[in-house]
Amino acid sequence: MLLLMKEVEISEFVFTDCVEQMLKYFAEEGDVQTTVCMLVVLGERRPKIPEEIQDDWFISYLELLARFKLWTVSNTLINLSHLGSISMMNHQSTTINVTCNQCNRVLTKVGWLCHKCKSVINSCAVCHLPVKGLFVWCQGCSHGGHINHIQEWLTISKQCPTGCGHICEYT
Q1: Contacts of 144 (CB under 8 A, 6+ apart)
Q2: Is residue 5 left, alpha or beta, with left meaning phi > 0 and alpha meaning psi from -120 to 50?
Q3: Torsion, Cα of 46, 50, 52, 56 (10° steps)
Q4: pLDDT digits (tens, 9 = 90+) for 100-154
Q5: Per-residue pLDDT tens for 9-32?
Q6: Domain 120-171: which topology?
Q7: Phi and psi dihedrals of 33, rounded to 5?
Q8: Are 77 and 40 in contact (CB under 8 A)?
Q9: 141 with 159: CB under 8 angstroms?
Q10: What pairing do the DSSP bridges indicate for beta strands 135-137 and 144-146?
Q11: Domain residue extents for the chain
């Protein structure tokens, strides 16, 4: 038996209680990944679930991603969000606080030396000279240096040039 279905444009598609119940079910089961992924796919056509609840689901999933240090995935998810409060997260707290490698003091002034202990702030892990331009670092061990020196080092070895033993990844 052949069933013929009328073609329905997406704009005509009406979400039923089924989609809403499915989203709530996944969220209640702790599967915020599926819940949030479905919300992203549904976009502006998502069911009439209050934005506060959707915010909670997004934040729960973003916290999960943060625990696994999946920063790039988290950033992509924030950019894909149709919720104003979530998409604004990329506009808040975009400052990186730099600390001295020797005394761990937060560096508040511009310069190449720590104002407390007078040590060089950004020295290259390969050549040991101050980095006065772009500084790249491993998010795992926080060591880094000149871009070209780190790139050259990584062609020879994957271990950190400082000898800390960390397998560095610069992406």
Answers
A1: 122, 124, 125, 131, 135, 136, 137, 138, 150, 170
A2: beta
A3: -50
A4: 777 878 877 777 778 888 887 788 999 999 888 888 888 888 889 999 999 999 9
A5: 544 455 567 888 899 999 999 999
A6: Herpes Virus-1 (3.30.40)
A7: -65, -50
A8: yes
A9: no
A10: antiparallel
A11: 15-91, 120-171
